[in-house]
Amino acid sequence: MESNDTVRVIDRPRWYAAYTLPRHEKAVADRLVQQKVESYLPLYSAVRCWNHRRIEVELPLFPGYVFVKMLLADRVRILSRPGIIRLVSFNGTPAALPDEEIARLQSSLLIWKATPYPFLTAGKQVRIKSGPFAGLEGKILRRKGKIRLLVTLELIQSAMLLELDAAEAQLAS
After folding, report:
1. Stretch (H or E) spanning 76
2. Radius of gyration over alpha carbons of the chain, in Å?
3. pLDDT band (50, 70, 90) for residue 2
4. What stretch of H or E contains 67?
């Protein structure tokens, strides 16, 4: 038999990440607000050049995603909105995000500036940006903690292992 606490958890709105069509995040967030659905789209400022002019634009911090607070029972109504493809799910079940995580993200972004950064994983090709090996390319063997990478560099048909900060590497194009 379910307790009243379990029923209340199911019946309260939770945060979910909605996956959107490419470059539709702002339109989706605007539509949700107009339709009185609570949503959150974290943005950051970036300078872009168009027609030889520098323009400051607001871009999504997490491209392709808008956070939506809703009852799981309203899933079909939310998914029918133009621009929303699906909710982020695990094993077919939409993954609810903790309220505290969204609140922490919102409050942090009021104080700190954030910009997107590529997700560096083992096997990715990277170029070293600074230090004595600047400009060389290598492959990430593994991450060592949150900010350390072990990268192999192939110099003169020989490999060497280099440990460096993630901030010193960028994805190679």
Report:
1. helix 75-79
2. 21
3. very low
4. strand 65-70
State both tokens at 56. 């400051």
CA quadruple 70, 74, 76, 82: dihedral, nearest 10 = -50
Cα distance from N-terminal residue to C-terminal residue, the chain: 56
For 100-149, write each residue's pLDDT tens digit. 999 999 998 998 888 776 677 778 888 888 777 777 788 877 777 655 66
Diameter over CA atoms, the chain: 69
Note the pTM of the prediction, 2 decimals: 0.70
- CA 26 to each of CA 32, 54, 72, 116, 130: distance values in angstroms, whole numbers, following the listed order: 10, 21, 23, 16, 35
Do residues 95 and 16 make contact, with C-beta atoms less than 8 angstroms apart? yes
One-letter amino acid at 148 equals R
- The CA distance from 10 to 5, in Å, is 9
Residue whose structure tokens are 């909710």:
87
Give burial (CB, 10 Å; 0-12/13-18/19+) of 90. exposed
Cβ-contact 39, 70 below 8 angstroms: no
User: Among candidates 130, 128, 131, which has minimal Cα distance to 150?
Assistant: 128
Token pair for 78: 């939310």
Element (H, E) at 50: strand 43-50
Report helix, strand or coil for 147. coil
